[in-house]
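Onboarding guide, step 5: your first structure request.
Type a short instruction followed by the sequence, for example:

Predict the 3D structure of this protein.
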Amino acid sequence: MKKTILDYLKENHQYINASCNGNHQCGQCKVKLLNRKPDLSETEKKFLSHEEIDNSIILACFHDYQKDDEILVFDMKMDILDTLDEKHIHSCFEGNGLIIDIGTTTIVMKWIGNKGECLKTDAFINPQVSFGGDVISRINESKKHFDALCYCLIHEIEQRIIKQEMIINQMIVCGNTTMTHFFIKEKVETLGKAPFHVLKKEMQKISSYHIFKNINYEFPIITFPHISAFVGGDIVAGIYASDLDQSLKKVLFVDLGTNGEMVLGNKEGFIVTSSAAGPAFEGVGISCGGSSINGAISHVSLQPFRLEVIGSSEAQCICGSGLISLFSELVRNQKIDELGHIVDGDEIVLSKKVKLNSKDISHFQLSKAAIETGIKILLENNETDTLYIAGGFGTHLDINDLKNIRVIPQTIKNIKYLGNSAINGCYKLLMSQDFNRVNEIIEKSQSIDLSKHPDFEDTFIESMYFYDEDY
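The system replies with structure tokens like these:
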């Protein structure tokens, strides 16, 4: 039976970005063939620049593997622009710690010294992207490739721990419910179908020997607990890091990542939900999309034309904040109509390498509608003027851009950008060792299913609009 180059790479533990899992849709699985130059289909050519085609860059999912193929795989390592909130934290922990945020797209690891100082940060693409860009695709893949999904995730983390050569006394881990289950090698199939049963909902305290096979000493691993199948430990960590569980004022907390988790509440309790936003806000699934790395467009102005690029280098891609800024400008200048159709031409051109087509717009539009729908339903019988935004690209966001494309209502007046609140929650728990407080967050959280809300379908359809006809 023939296998694609993508299949071959996965079988041999070479993981590349393939958010559509080989379905010829995302254009991310780029590799270079060194020994031959295969014919490219017209569909494949649409994902590649003329320069890439001339340099024998291909998409691994389009081509059958041949026995003598020499394949160059590009490094998926990346830099994440985040900082650790080390202020005013009294340490109750002695020794060296490791904190990890296992995101669907990105993994962040930080080594913490015995005085609470951050010694090293390592950030990289989750190798599971070779099996699909979102949680549902990986749950589906787990039916056939569960061991492979666990292995690629754990092995990558383990190798980076070994390379660092620092004795760890305790590890704190957070992630969404699915990613955490993969990490502790628990089945995930029940997370993808009703009634969405969570096998390991509680905080886990387990031995490193249970997870890692090549680290020759033992240390405890503690994972953040989960509220539901789709509101996981990373959100609990964010609530904890931002002291939302001690707030007198009701606050709307939104993580604009792959799963679109939302929380509304204060010290009295929380209503939580998630929407199937997909990874578009992280640049995944957008033909020229990328994470918040050097070379990513983070802000766009059309009148006059100006691009802000992270690292001030040549624009290589556009990240989540750049997409939100761009669509705000497209609305403001009426370059798209209310349903997102391009008014003039077939694509939006920002630079030589950054161009958006109608499929990109539709992909972003679905993510926008999912987040907007969740917020509208959460705020239906509750009022707040304060929004906390979590996520790696939050520091680049403009509240007016979010309002302009209707993701958040005009009534929101106060906004706080939390950055990577998940990793900060891990750090805070490492330092405080206050496990009871974290468990109390779970006890006063109520999860709601958006799809069962009587107004869900109407609200979602309404949220597909970028602006009203009389805008």
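Each response can be followed by summary notes, for example: The two ends are 56 Å apart (CA to CA).
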